[in-house]
Specification:
The chain has 144 residues and is of the alpha/beta class. The protein has a single domain, classed as Leucine-rich repeat, LRR (right-handed beta-alpha superhelix) (Alpha-Beta Horseshoe), CATH 3.80.10.10. Helix content is 19%, strand content 15%. It contains two helices and seven strands. The protein has a five-stranded mixed beta sheet with strand order 2-3-5-6-7, with no helix packed on it. Strands 1-4 form a two-stranded antiparallel sheet. The chain is globular. Bound molecules: 2-acetamido-2-deoxy-beta-D-glucopyranose (3 copies). This is Leucine-rich repeat-containing N-terminal plant-type domain-containing protein.
Protein backbone atom coordinates (compact mmCIF):
# COMPACT_ATOMS: atom_id res chain seq x y z
CA UNK A 1 0.00 0.00 0.00
CA UNK A 2 2.73 2.41 1.02
CA UNK A 3 4.64 1.56 -2.11
CA UNK A 4 1.60 2.32 -4.20
CA UNK A 5 1.19 5.73 -2.57
CA UNK A 6 4.85 6.57 -3.02
CA UNK A 7 4.72 5.50 -6.63
CA UNK A 8 1.62 7.59 -7.12
CA UNK A 9 3.37 10.72 -5.84
CA UNK A 10 6.45 9.97 -7.83
CA UNK A 11 4.38 9.76 -10.98
CA UNK A 12 2.72 13.09 -10.28
CA UNK A 13 6.03 14.75 -9.52
CA UNK A 14 7.67 13.51 -12.69
CA UNK A 15 4.70 14.54 -14.79
CA UNK A 16 4.69 18.00 -13.26
CA UNK A 17 8.38 18.43 -13.97
CA UNK A 18 8.08 17.31 -17.55
CA UNK A 19 9.65 19.70 -19.99
CA UNK A 20 6.65 19.80 -22.29
CA UNK A 21 4.24 21.76 -20.10
CA UNK A 22 3.94 25.50 -20.05
CA UNK A 23 4.18 27.71 -16.99
CA UNK A 24 0.80 27.60 -15.13
CA UNK A 25 0.78 31.33 -14.40
CA UNK A 26 1.23 32.14 -18.09
CA UNK A 27 -1.42 29.60 -19.05
CA UNK A 28 -3.85 31.31 -16.67
CA UNK A 29 -3.01 34.67 -18.23
CA UNK A 30 -3.76 33.34 -21.71
CA UNK A 31 -7.03 31.80 -20.50
CA UNK A 32 -8.11 35.14 -19.02
CA UNK A 33 -7.31 36.78 -22.35
CA UNK A 34 -9.34 34.11 -24.13
CA UNK A 35 -12.29 34.68 -21.80
CA UNK A 36 -12.39 38.33 -22.83
CA UNK A 37 -12.70 37.73 -26.56
CA UNK A 38 -14.79 35.78 -29.00
CA UNK A 39 -13.32 34.07 -32.02
CA UNK A 40 -15.63 33.47 -34.95
CA UNK A 41 -13.50 30.62 -36.27
CA UNK A 42 -11.74 27.72 -34.62
CA UNK A 43 -8.57 29.64 -33.87
CA UNK A 44 -8.79 29.40 -30.09
CA UNK A 45 -10.04 25.83 -29.97
CA UNK A 46 -6.66 24.45 -28.95
CA UNK A 47 -6.57 26.92 -26.03
CA UNK A 48 -7.66 24.43 -23.39
CA UNK A 49 -5.08 21.68 -23.15
CA UNK A 50 -2.56 21.68 -20.33
CA UNK A 51 0.42 22.64 -22.44
CA UNK A 52 -0.21 26.20 -23.59
CA UNK A 53 3.04 26.11 -25.57
CA UNK A 54 1.20 23.96 -28.10
CA UNK A 55 -1.74 26.33 -28.51
CA UNK A 56 -2.23 28.01 -31.85
CA UNK A 57 -0.40 31.31 -32.01
CA UNK A 58 1.66 30.60 -28.88
CA UNK A 59 5.34 29.75 -28.81
CA UNK A 60 7.56 29.11 -25.81
CA UNK A 61 11.26 29.14 -25.28
CA UNK A 62 12.59 25.58 -25.52
CA UNK A 63 14.88 26.29 -22.62
CA UNK A 64 12.81 28.25 -20.10
CA UNK A 65 9.31 27.28 -21.29
CA UNK A 66 8.24 30.90 -20.91
CA UNK A 67 5.90 32.15 -23.62
CA UNK A 68 8.02 34.25 -25.96
CA UNK A 69 5.67 34.69 -28.87
CA UNK A 70 1.97 35.43 -29.13
CA UNK A 71 0.53 35.78 -32.60
CA UNK A 72 -3.24 36.07 -32.72
CA UNK A 73 -3.17 38.08 -35.94
CA UNK A 74 -6.00 37.27 -38.32
CA UNK A 75 -7.94 35.41 -35.62
CA UNK A 76 -10.69 38.01 -36.18
CA UNK A 77 -11.14 38.31 -32.43
CA UNK A 78 -13.80 40.57 -30.94
CA UNK A 79 -13.61 41.95 -27.44
CA UNK A 80 -11.15 43.42 -25.01
CA UNK A 81 -7.60 42.55 -24.13
CA UNK A 82 -7.29 41.40 -20.54
CA UNK A 83 -4.31 42.96 -18.77
CA UNK A 84 -3.57 39.48 -17.47
CA UNK A 85 -1.22 39.27 -20.45
CA UNK A 86 1.16 41.42 -18.41
CA UNK A 87 2.18 38.09 -16.85
CA UNK A 88 3.88 37.13 -20.11
CA UNK A 89 6.98 39.02 -19.06
CA UNK A 90 9.32 37.19 -21.47
CA UNK A 91 7.30 38.01 -24.55
CA UNK A 92 9.51 38.97 -27.48
CA UNK A 93 6.87 39.01 -30.20
CA UNK A 94 3.28 40.19 -29.92
CA UNK A 95 1.04 40.37 -32.97
CA UNK A 96 -2.53 41.53 -32.37
CA UNK A 97 -3.06 42.66 -35.95
CA UNK A 98 -6.35 42.20 -37.77
CA UNK A 99 -8.70 41.79 -34.87
CA UNK A 100 -11.39 44.07 -33.46
CA UNK A 101 -10.67 45.32 -29.97
CA UNK A 102 -13.59 47.69 -30.12
CA UNK A 103 -11.70 50.98 -30.03
CA UNK A 104 -10.14 50.28 -26.65
CA UNK A 105 -6.93 52.00 -25.59
CA UNK A 106 -3.72 50.10 -26.18
CA UNK A 107 -3.24 48.36 -22.84
CA UNK A 108 -0.60 49.95 -20.66
CA UNK A 109 1.03 46.65 -19.81
CA UNK A 110 2.42 46.52 -23.33
CA UNK A 111 4.89 49.17 -22.23
CA UNK A 112 6.03 46.97 -19.35
CA UNK A 113 7.05 44.03 -21.52
CA UNK A 114 10.77 44.58 -21.33
CA UNK A 115 11.83 41.89 -23.78
CA UNK A 116 9.39 42.87 -26.49
CA UNK A 117 11.07 43.41 -29.85
CA UNK A 118 8.19 43.01 -32.29
CA UNK A 119 4.81 44.56 -31.74
CA UNK A 120 2.07 44.70 -34.35
CA UNK A 121 -1.12 46.54 -33.44
CA UNK A 122 -2.17 47.38 -36.97
CA UNK A 123 -5.79 47.05 -38.09
CA UNK A 124 -6.94 45.99 -34.64
CA UNK A 125 -9.24 48.94 -33.88
CA UNK A 126 -7.31 50.57 -31.06
CA UNK A 127 -8.03 54.18 -30.23
CA UNK A 128 -5.24 56.26 -31.74
CA UNK A 129 -4.45 58.62 -28.91
CA UNK A 130 -3.45 55.67 -26.77
CA UNK A 131 -0.26 55.37 -28.79
CA UNK A 132 1.42 57.59 -26.25
CA UNK A 133 1.48 54.68 -23.86
CA UNK A 134 3.97 52.99 -26.15
CA UNK A 135 6.70 55.55 -25.79
CA UNK A 136 8.39 53.26 -23.29
CA UNK A 137 8.92 50.57 -25.92
CA UNK A 138 11.86 52.41 -27.42
CA UNK A 139 13.68 49.34 -28.56
CA UNK A 140 10.74 47.69 -30.20
CA UNK A 141 9.83 47.52 -33.81
CA UNK A 142 6.29 48.79 -33.71
CA UNK A 143 3.65 48.52 -36.42
CA UNK A 144 0.43 50.38 -35.85
C1 LIG B 1 -9.48 39.67 -16.74
O1 LIG B 1 -9.55 38.31 -16.39
C2 LIG B 1 -9.82 38.08 -15.02
C3 LIG B 1 -9.72 36.59 -14.79
O2 LIG B 1 -10.52 35.87 -15.70
C4 LIG B 1 -11.19 38.64 -14.70
O3 LIG B 1 -11.46 38.44 -13.33
C5 LIG B 1 -11.21 40.12 -15.03
O4 LIG B 1 -12.50 40.63 -14.83
C6 LIG B 1 -10.79 40.35 -16.46
N1 LIG B 1 -10.66 41.78 -16.70
C7 LIG B 1 -11.21 42.36 -17.76
C8 LIG B 1 -10.99 43.84 -17.88
O5 LIG B 1 -11.85 41.73 -18.58
C1 LIG C 1 12.31 24.48 -30.29
O1 LIG C 1 11.91 23.16 -30.55
C2 LIG C 1 11.06 23.04 -31.68
C3 LIG C 1 10.54 21.61 -31.76
O2 LIG C 1 11.49 20.69 -31.27
C4 LIG C 1 11.86 23.45 -32.91
O3 LIG C 1 11.04 23.35 -34.06
C5 LIG C 1 12.30 24.88 -32.74
O4 LIG C 1 13.11 25.28 -33.83
C6 LIG C 1 13.07 25.06 -31.45
N1 LIG C 1 13.30 26.47 -31.25
C7 LIG C 1 14.48 26.96 -30.88
C8 LIG C 1 14.53 28.44 -30.71
O5 LIG C 1 15.45 26.26 -30.71
C1 LIG D 1 1.53 40.31 -37.91
O1 LIG D 1 0.61 39.49 -38.59
C2 LIG D 1 0.25 39.96 -39.87
C3 LIG D 1 -0.84 39.07 -40.42
O2 LIG D 1 -0.60 37.73 -40.13
C4 LIG D 1 1.50 39.97 -40.74
O3 LIG D 1 1.18 40.43 -42.03
C5 LIG D 1 2.52 40.90 -40.09
O4 LIG D 1 3.73 40.87 -40.84
C6 LIG D 1 2.82 40.47 -38.68
N1 LIG D 1 3.65 41.48 -38.04
C7 LIG D 1 4.88 41.24 -37.61
C8 LIG D 1 5.58 42.38 -36.93
O5 LIG D 1 5.41 40.15 -37.73
Amino acid sequence: MLTAVVLFYFTIASTAGKASSCIPRERDALLAFKAGVTAPGDELRSWQSLDCCKWSGVACSNKTLHVIKLDVSQFALNGKINSSLAALTRLVYLNLSQNDFGGMAIPEFVGSLKKLKYLDLSRANFVERSLLSLVICQHSSILI
